[in-house]
Write a structure and sequence with these properties.
The protein is mostly helical. Helices cover 21% and strands 0% of the residues. 6% of the residues are buried.
């Protein structure tokens, strides 16, 4: 429910939409959960940072698809043998 810029999208809810996951979104999450939090404590952990920009890196779930190349491998190799490449025509 986060866009490529690290901002919550509208499907995250009106209280979070447009807020940054590393900025004002943190406080918004705390506000939404304040009645359900039983215990709080400080926790220090490492977080991934981009070595070039020194900005935090967040994981973004994206739609993906995969293809089993072995299913067409034999046919592809046969087809590749039929291809003729001519050099020096241009």
């Amino acid at each position: 429910m986060v866009d490529k810029e690290g901002n919550f999208v509208k499907t995250a809810g009106t209280d979070l939409a447009g807020k940054n996951i590393m900025g004002d979104g943190v406080e918004a999450i705390k506000e939404l959960l304040k009645n359900d939090i039983i215990h709080t404590a400080e926790l220090v952990h490492s977080y991934p940072y981009d070595w070039r920009t020194n900005k935090p890196v967040f994981m973004l779930a994206s739609e993906q698809w995969f293809f089993d190349c072995s299913a067409v491998k034999d046919n592809a190799l046969v087809c590749l043998k039929k291809i003729k490449i001519a050099f020096g025509l241009f």
